[in-house]
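Q: Could you fold this chain for me?
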Amino acid sequence: MAAPALAAPPVRSRAERIRWTFADGLTLVGRELSRIRREPGGLVAALIFPAVMVLLFGYVFGSAIKVPGGGNYREYLMPGLFAMVTFSAVTALTLQVATDASRGVMDRFRSMPMARSAVPFGQTGADMLTGLLSLAIMAGAGLLVGWRARNGLLPAAEAFALILVMRYAMSWVGCYLGLAVRNEQVADHLVPLMLPVTMLSNAFVPTAGMPGWLRFICDWNPASALTTACRDLFGNPGVPAGDQAWPVAHPVAAVLLWSAVLLAVFAPLSVRTYRRKGR
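A: Sure. Below is the predicted structure, expressed as structure tokens.
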């Protein structure tokens, strides 16, 4: 007697696969939020850090650095701090993803009937929620020390939207690095490598007095584009004038372009790396 044939797996349309991935991704976002509730220490540290940076840089550097064209240094500084937190947050996600990979959490996910791309989507989605809280706390701390969004509500909303777009793009960079290293000790050692990304920019000091080669690096740093875009949209001092490098002369377009490139490169890389590690 012939053995009964196994039923073929259902063929899903593209729309069904997208809905499946989205639903599983939301489930994993909920998992990350529940983990934060059980272990709130990491979230508290992540939320206190921006406020500490506002106070530290605002009052320590504020007495020593003159803003080009005049103005309050703390208003000049706040867009740079928004950019710094946006880019430095990649290290926290890298460590979190690497920890899950090294402890076998990713292997358990692969054994479940879920969309393979849902795991990195869930990780980056949860990071966005943390980013929203961090951004709100930093903005509140900035208001306390004298920072203001002087161009009105709509330009300020556009600036915050740009920050979140770049944060989401950078979260995919962190997700890929965490999946690639798969070791929390190695991921922890990557943390100092993000410092030059924010320091080699116009976030804290003007670039006009730098050597030509260093100014070129700083002007083409995506952190400089984000900082300049926020200064322009918030109406804060320090927006460069005259002949400037393209990313500084067109900062909003540069931020959107950088974000699109990072997403186009690292989102597929993250999904592919997650799938390949399970083979």
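A (continued): Confidence is low (pLDDT under 50) at residues 1-9.
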